[in-house]
C-alpha cells in the first residue's frame, strides 16, 4: 500500500460517505444481531487525492475484517457492485474511463473486464443474478463522457470463462430510459438539458428510475427489456432504495430532508386500462418504523430478515504516514411495522 503524503485527504464512499486514506485499519465492529453473524460488508471508497495510487480501496467491515483490499486501476469515477457468477460472488468496478475490473474478495485477486464503448462517470450499477446493468448517471448527447449507449449490461457467467481472462464477451446495449434526452430537436441539441439520475430502486424484475427534473418515474422490465412510464411523479426518496426483504425498502426521504424512511414498493406489471391496453402500475407507501435510533447521514446495507445496517465512516484528522481509517460505527436495526 502506498504511503500518504503530508497533505490531508479523505476518501468518498460510493453514496457520499467520507472515509480517510491510510496505511492500516483499526478493527471494525462485527455485525449483530446473531442473524447477521459471519456476513462481511464491503465498502468501496474513492481517494480524493488525484496523485494517490490506487484510486480506490475496498474495505471489509465486520466478519472479522478490517483489512483494506486495494483496487489496482488508477482510475477515478468508478462504481462498484457485488455480482454472482458461476465462480462465486465478485465485486465489479465499472467506469471512470472505459474500464471494468472484476475482484474476488476471497482471494484478493483482480482481473480486467471488457471495455465500455464510451466512458461512464460513476454509473448506476444494478446486479441481478449473474448480470450487471450499468446506467449513465449523467447522460450526454455529446460524444465522449457518458455518451450513448447510456444503458448496457454484462453477464459474468459468460465473462469469467477462465480464471485470468475476463475479456471474452463484452457489454450488451439496451434501450435508454424514456426520461433521458432521447429525442431532441436541433435547437435543444445546441443547448442540451442537463439530466441526472436522482433516485432508483430494483423491485422484482423491474428497475424504477427518476431524474432530477420532474419527469415522473419509469420502469424497466429486466425480463422483457422494455421501459414503461409508471407514475407522473418522481420517486419520493433520494438515491438508491435498499431492499429489506419482501416489498420493504429503506431510503432517504425527500419530504423529511433526507432522513431515513421505509417504503412498501410494489410493481404490478401490465394491468388492463379503460382503453383496453395494458400498463405497468406502481404503488409506494411510507411505512412507520420502530427504531432505537439510526446512525444518520451515511450508508445503508440490508442484512436480510428485516435487518439493516447503517454505516458511519469517520474522517481522519491526522495527516502523514500515521493516518488511518478510524473505526466505522455499524448499527444494526430491525424494521417493525
Which class of secondary structure composition applies to the elements? Answer: mainly beta
In whole angstroms, how far apart are the ends? 46 Å
Question: Would you list the SSEs in sequence order as H and E?
Answer: EEEEEEEEEEEEEEHEEEEEEEEEEEE
**Regions with little confidence, pLDDT below 50 for 5+ residues:** 1-36, 317-329
Alpha carbon gyration radius: 20 Å
Mean pLDDT: 78
Strand order of the largest sheet: 18-17-16-15-19-20-21-22
Strand content: 35-45%
Largest sheet, if any?
8 strands, mixed
Percent helix range: under 10%
* Count of helical regions: 1
Question: What is the tally of beta strands?
Answer: 26
Which overall shape is indicated by the principal axes computed on the Cα atoms? Answer: globular
How would you summarize the topology of this molecule?
Blueprint: E1 10-13, E2 18-20, E3 24-25, E4 41-47, E5 56-61, E6 68-70, E7 78-83, E8 90-95, E9 100-104, E10 109-112, E11 124-128, E12 131-135, E13 151-155, E14 172-173, H1 186-190, E15 197-203, E16 206-211, E17 217-221, E18 226-231, E19 237-245, E20 248-253, E21 260-272, E22 278-287, E23 299-304, E24 307-312, E25 324-325, E26 329-334
Parallel strand pairs: 3-25, 15-19
Antiparallel strand pairs: 1-2, 1-4, 4-5, 5-6, 7-8, 8-9, 9-10, 11-12, 12-13, 13-14, 15-16, 16-17, 17-18, 19-20, 20-21, 21-22, 23-24, 24-26
